[in-house]
Structure formats: structure tokens, C-alpha cells
Amino acid sequence: MDEKELKIRTKEFAHRCVKLALALPTSILGNHIKGQLIRSSTSVASNYRAVCIAHSKASFVSKLSIVIEEADESAFWLNFITDEQLMSKERILPLLKEAEELTSIFIASRKTARGFK
């Protein structure tokens, strides 16, 4: 998967998470998770764009680490939604799978950039 495809994929992930977050119940917990999921998922997309214009290998790895953390945090919030039974697992599962796949892709990229096998 190339840079252009990942830019599209991360942006689509953010859009899908925002739509799901906006459908959460209006409650103290729902509102909290809504904000957290919107922040973390949009951060995946915006920080990946920063990765693409990094000026050094160290900057690339550092920014990629942020993308990994935010994708993993998005997965956490998606799991939390199902744990709290705020939405059905069936509705969450496709986004959770995407969060986990993106996390794996970016971990592999970071390992490659660092020269690990």
C-alpha cells in the first residue's frame, strides 16, 4: 500500500469514526467517548500526513509513533463502546478491524524505518 492509498484510508477511517461517534448516546459517558474517539481517529489521518512530509528519518519515526498510538487509542475507544454496550458489536467491528489493521501497518513501517526485522 502506497502513501496516497494510506492517506485516503486514514482519512476514510477518521470520517467513519466521526460518524459513529456522533451516533453515540447523549450522556456523560457517550459525550466523553465521542470527543475522545473523534480526537484520536482524526489524529491518525492528520499525523499520517505529517509523516509523509517528515524532513528526516528521526522525524518520520517519531511522527509514525504518534500515528500508531492514536490508531491504538481509537481501537481502545471502539472496544470501550462495546464493553459499555453503547452500540452493538456488529456496528463497531468493521471500524475496530480497520483500527487494528492500520496499527499493524504502521508498526511494520516503523520497524522497517528503524531497520528492524
Q: Please report the total strand number as a whole number.
A: 0
- How many structural domains can be distinguished in the coordinates? 1
Q: Tell me what the CATH architecture is.
A: Up-down Bundle
How many strands, which pairing sense, and closed or not: the largest β-sheet? none
> What's the CATH C level?
Mainly Alpha
Runs in which pLDDT lies below 50 for 5 or more consecutive residues are none
Q: Report how far the terminal alpha carbons are from each other.
A: 19 Å
Dominant shape: elongated
Overall pLDDT level: 96
CATH superfamily: 23S rRNA-intervening sequence
Task: Note the topology.
Elements: H1 3-22, H2 28-52, H3 57-83, H4 89-114
Helix pairs in contact: 1-2, 1-4, 2-3, 3-4
Explain the overall architecture:
The chain is mostly helical and 117 residues long. It has one domain: 23S rRNA-intervening sequence (de novo design (two linked rop proteins)), CATH 1.20.1440.60. It is built from four helices and no strands. The longest helix has 27 residues, at 57-83. It is elongated. The mean pLDDT is 96.
List keywords for this structure.
117 residues, mainly alpha, elongated
Short description:
The chain has 117 residues and is mostly helical. Helix content is 84%, strand content 0%. The protein has a single domain (3-114), classed as de novo design (two linked rop proteins).
